[in-house]
Design brief:
Blueprint (H helix, E strand, L loop, with lengths): L34 H11 L4 H11 L4 E3 L4 H12 L9 E5 L6 H13 L5 E4 L7 H5 L1
Parallel strand pairs: 1-2, 2-3
Family: Belongs to the PAPS reductase family. CysH subfamily.
InterPro entries: PAPS_reduct_dom (IPR002500), Rossmann-like_a/b/a_fold (IPR014729)
Protein name: 3'-phosphoadenylsulfate reductase
Length: 138
């Protein structure tokens, strides 16, 4: 028996529009890509450089978020996003999951990134009402 997620339905093959980067958020539709549309997009994106892919994402995917653990690839992505200029400015909010088990160096790096990229909106999520690993483990 197949999973409902993978079952074929005619609605999934219908192309749907998506908002442009200049649209206001108030009336943005949900972004939906059919399988044929995703295939086409993937074929086009694989021809682009990483910076161009990020710019496409900013234009095509409103209210985009970037998760990061502040590893090497995450930092490179943050830096590339910060350098996008022109009509498409970096509007990507960052999400960092503070598990309360990060090395102090990682938390220092979070502070350094905040200072270096003050225009980026960083959301830090950790267990509600908990400040230390001891509190979390209790």
């Amino acid at each position: 028996m197949s999973s409902p997620i993978y079952e074929h339905s005619p609605e999934r093959d219908v192309e749907s529009g998506y908002a442009s980067g200049s649209s206001s958020e108030a009336g943005l539709p949900d972004v939906f890509f059919s399988k044929p549309h995703l295939k086409f997009i993937n074929q086009q994106l694989q021809k682009l450089e990483p910076e161009e892919i990020l710019k496409w994402c900013l234009i095509s995917l409103p209210s985009l978020y970037q998760t990061t653990a502040f590893g090497l690839t995450g930092l490179v992505t943050v830096d590339m996003l910060s350098k996008i200029s022109g009509p498409v400015q970096s509007q990507v909010d960052l999400i960092f999951l503070d598990t309360l088990y990060h090395f102090s160096e990682t938390l220092s790096l979070v502070d350094r990134v905040r200072r270096r990229y003050p225009h980026l909106n960083l959301h830090v999520y950790k267990p509600q009402g908990i400040e230390t690993t001891e509190q979390f483990e209790a």
